[in-house]
Amino acid sequence: MGCAFVGCQGAGAEPRLYTIADAATGLRAGQRAALGETPCHGDIFHIQQQCEGLANRLARLARREQLDSARIRPVRVALKRQRDRLPGFAKVLDGKLAAIAQRFDVPEYQVRAVCLLQRKPETSQAYWQRRKQLNRPPGWKFHGILEAVSDAMDETHRSSPMVGNLNGRLRNYFFLRRHLGQGYLDLLRFFLNHRPFARSEHPGRVGKSPAEPMTGKRHPHWLELLGFERFHRSPFPA
Fold first, then answer.
1. What's the pLDDT score for residue 237?
2. 127, 121 Cβ separation under 8 angstroms
3. Which residues pair with 40 in a beta bridge?
4. What value does the mean pLDDT take over residues 170-193?
């Protein structure tokens, strides 16, 4: 399960809230109950993972459809049911590309050409050949457009792995109690926000809690914040 809240900022427009969720009916029902008519786009992570697994399996087969129809049908049905939701992120990106074209006063097809350039790996010869072609028109602000398009693509969410990751972390604590009250959830939230990271992809976060980078301030141990006194082992033997 996963649902991420993200925003879209167009040229001269107010930020527009939308969500990203997988195909779970319960999750989408909750989204409608909480946010009403707020758009809920399809999460491409799960369907992409499903398709990749199928492709890897079928790549090892000679007569694909007939020999593994049991795996093909679930993917086909999933694609059919989610076909209207999965391209939701593309509409968001379309709006951003149109805004970039308006900002730089260039035709939209040129901005889309820069967007398609990002599909090629920067280490390939094809990338640099195409980049040279796009940079030819005199007076065209290619580098500014390239940076704007890259930022737009990076900021356009297509899946919700962050929330799925958080759900996986929380599940480890839920089995400790049969009934989850608000008090327990508040304590768990406080613990997760103030417990230091033991490791991180970002070295600057190691040894710091999630709250510290956001506030820019150090804070005591989370037990001391709750008013408890921490046990300290004496350095001298009894």
1. 62
2. yes
3. 19
4. 76
Q: What percent of the chain has pLDDT over 70?
A: 77
With a CB cutoff of 8 Å and minimum separation 6, the contacts of 9 are: 15
pTM for this one? Answer: 0.44
Does residue 133 have a pLDDT over 80? Answer: yes
147, 104 Cβ separation under 8 angstroms: no
Most confidently predicted of 5-14, 171-180, 202-211: 202-211
The CA-to-CA distance between both ends of the chain, in Å, stands at: 52
Task: Look at residue 203 and tell me whether its pLDDT is greater than 70.
Answer: yes
**Could you tell me the two tokens for 101?**
């074209």
Q: Do 149 and 100 contact (CB within 8 A), yes or no?
A: yes
